[in-house]
From TrEMBL:
Residues of the CusB-like beta-barrel domain: 222-293
Protein name: Efflux RND transporter periplasmic adaptor subunit
Keywords associated with the record: Coiled coil
PANTHER family: HLYD FAMILY OF SECRETION PROTEINS, MULTIDRUG RESISTANCE PROTEIN MDTA
Single annotated GO MF: efflux transmembrane transporter activity
Highest taxon above the source species: Bacteria
Residue ranges of every copy of the Multidrug resistance protein MdtA-like barrel-sandwich hybrid domain listed in the record: 76-205
Family the UniProt entry places it in: Belongs to the membrane fusion protein (MFP) (TC 8.A.1) family.
Amino acid sequence: MKRSTLWILTGLAAAVLIAGGARWAGQRKAASSSGPEAATNTSLIELGASDVITAQKMDMTVGLPISGSLKASQSALIKARVAGELMDLVVREGDQVKAGQIIARIDPTEYQARERQAKQQADAAQAQVETAQKQYDNNKALVDQGFISQTALQNSAFTLNGAKATHMAALAGLDVARKALDDATVRSPIDGQVSQRLAQPGERVAPDARIVEVVNLTQLEIEAALPAADASQVRVGMKAKLKVEGLEEPLQAKVLRISPAAQAGSRSVMVYLGVTGDEGLRQGLFAEGSLGTRSIQALAVPLSSVRTDKPQPYVQVVDKAQIRHVTVQTGARAEKTVQNNTLTWVEVQGLSEGMQVLAGSAGAVREGTAVKFTAGVR
């Protein structure tokens, strides 16, 4: 290798080393100049009035969660009592009906004929009774005069009693026929609305065939299953607040009855709560809420402020202008309106009254982050 070539290669290597050192020095200088400002930006947050909520003591109702479907207290599944062709069924779903109102008719031709037949049989039996009675009276007169024996009178008495029994049986048959004729007219047993029409005019129905269902929506119930341990705390008259699907406003309910027996298998106890009828309520709607059992006073924060992204639930507290994470234990829950804002509040242990807690909308904030409040917020 020539000496000139060696000098050229050595110079190029030196130039590369010098350029790399200059670049590294520039990066260190840029990092040292921008580092403090960046650290300041990431460790300081500004909070508004809606971002901070004060932990406070409040009266809370300890309740049991309940759920179930609405069911009308009064309902009737109207069925056919006799067989025949269905006629004059004009009511449909949603129609109002009154107790005793005619819902439909079953072709009465056969039952009218049976009623006439039974009446004629009863009339024939009545005639036999009258004939037997006259025969008995004549025989009694002849016995008194000594013209016939006592045995003949006894035979006529037996005949009269048999005729009377036949007449009574014929009258009973007439009652049965009249009852069947009356059953051919289908009536509503309660006031209410038609919820289902289960048959069509012209259809031949059998006894016990379902025709329509009528429900009375003025009084609705919820059938809720509670564990035996929770059911022991429930008493008739207790109040509950329920949220019904499709309705914005919660409804008040009251315990009407408690089943005296537990369900087989689940061992749950059925509790029945009454709800006053409302225009928006319908049978079958799902409802859920809380049944209050007792009232307590407890320190509480909004449930949304309690975070669960650590092994133990915690809240983010503003302490000496910094964020501090405080582990808490939660308890009873209740919906409360504070400053025209309705939230679900939860009982907490591990905080002191008056502590400033970050609202759930503030999100997760690193512990130790400095806090700056906007004007007018402490």
